[in-house]
Amino acid sequence: MNNSALRILVVDDEPFTGKLLHHMLTGIGFTDVTVRESGAAALELVGGLIPPELILLDLNMPGMDGIELVRKLVEHDYNGSVVLVSGEDERVLQTAVYLVRAHHITVLGHLNKPVSAVELDEVTARWKAAAAPRAVIEPYRSSELRAAIQNNELVNYYQPKVNVLTGVVSGVETLVRWQHPRDGLVFPDRFIALAEENDMIDELTRVVLNDALHQARKWHEDGLHLKVAVNLSMDSFSSVSFADVISDAVRRAGVAPQDVVLEVTESRLMLDQRAPLEILTRLRLKRFRLSIDDFGTGNSSLTQLRQIPFDELKIDQSFVHGASRDATALAMYNASLTLGRQLGMEVVAEGVEDREDWDLVRRTQCDVAQGYFIARPMPAAALMEWIATWNRRLPELVATG
Ligand code: C2E
Ligand code: CA
Ligand code: CA
Question: Which of 33, 72, 140, 357 is deepest in the core (most CB within 10 A)?
């Protein structure tokens, strides 16, 4: 789809800004640009026969402000996208973005006044990606997943975790995929919840864990001493025998519990207080390493840190990727890092996606990093070759000064 096909509405009470945006948009090839100077006038257009597909919306307007206009857009069943424009500081804009998203309206981004042509180009480019026709995704049935587990269609991918200071690969995180005979590689967001809701998660975990342990054993035999992390669903923590299931599997595989990291997501951790606490404490006593995953995204993260003897804290990727350009994310990243340190935990930064993120974790001396900048999750067989490539990249990445 070319630029000209997109119907854009600019809403700004300042006639000058409206004209300027109009000028810039036509300058980058958009021909269908309309400007309105109030929320009410904008709504008329949105309620009309050919509603806009993208609205550049000024937050601060007398009368109906941008946030109120968004609420009205929802009432008008607006299903296009929005870009927020404002002279407010970054945090206010961020909050506004969350607010608009909470209304299930697609926010392509926000622009600070004065708006630059480059930013405008960037944000409108995102429209094309967002508007590309999405395939309708049918949820899988639980019987399909059950069969898949039985037929060994689940495969483990492994994503390296590296020591930030030295660059040495310290471990891998196991991420399960479903090698679907018809649909190809299916990601866990499409079947983990399904497994949890249909009493299959223990079975799934068992398969994932056994494969991961088997693989860890092989790597150890090949002289590659890696810690292997596995994600545990909170649903498994309601049965106290779960600690035994895990330690039996580890013993059978001949892997030391110290080399097994159990990553636990915090958000649902405390649904029922006692069982998870007991299981996690027992696992810790058996020398497994406990990791609190997605740190900072739940509600009671601090309480959990106090109650459960975690060894590792994984700072959620939303506070890592792009944090050097986002003051709020950076504050949370720093606070999490300090907290983890003071509690004597190893701190892992997730979502290290680009060079800037890598420089941040280096500068702040985070312990371990994981993310696309280092490596994407990969099949076990690809790991050796990746390590060789990584080692070639290393001198430049861990150079000081
Ligand atoms: P998670 O535990 O937070 O795993 C990290 C996710 O972030 C993975 O997605 C990984 O591919 C992705 N990721 C890694 N580096 C980057 C990066 O630099 N940028 C971005 N944007 N993403 C990155 P994946 O594999 O799709 O897994 C999604 C979630 O599914 C996992 O989140 C985990 O909660 C769950 N999951 C995966 N495997 C299992 C499993 O065996 N059991 C259970 N219970 N849950 C699992
Ligand atoms: Ca994880
Ligand atoms: Ca995570």
Answer: 357
- The three-state secondary structure class of 374 is coil
Look at the block and give the residue holding tokens 């000058």.
16
Most informative mutation of 231, 262, 317, 372 for ligand 1 (most atoms within 8 A of CB):
231
DSSP 154-218: EEEEEEEEEETTT--EEEEEEEEEEEETTTEEE-GGGTHHHHHHTT-HHHHHHHHHHHHHHHHHH
| CA 93/CA 116 separation, integer angstroms | 17
pLDDT digits (tens, 9 = 90+) for 229-264: 999 988 888 777 889 999 999 999 999 999 999 999
Please tell me whether residue 11 adopts helix, strand or coil conformation: strand
Nearest atom, ligand 1, residue 232 CA? 44
Query: Chain-wide mean pLDDT for the chain?
Result: 90
Q: Which domains does the chain have, with CATH numbers?
A: 3-131 (3.40.50.2300), 142-397 (3.20.20.450)
Model pLDDT for residues 350-390, shown as the tens digit of each residue: 999 999 999 999 999 999 999 999 999 999 999 999 999 99
**Residue 395 token pair:** 């001198």
Question: Looking at residue 112, what is its pLDDT?
Answer: 87
Q: Is 187 in the pocket of ligand 1 (CB under 6 A)?
A: yes
DSSP conformational letter for 266? S
Q: Do 149 and 200 form a contact (C-beta atoms < 8 A)?
A: yes
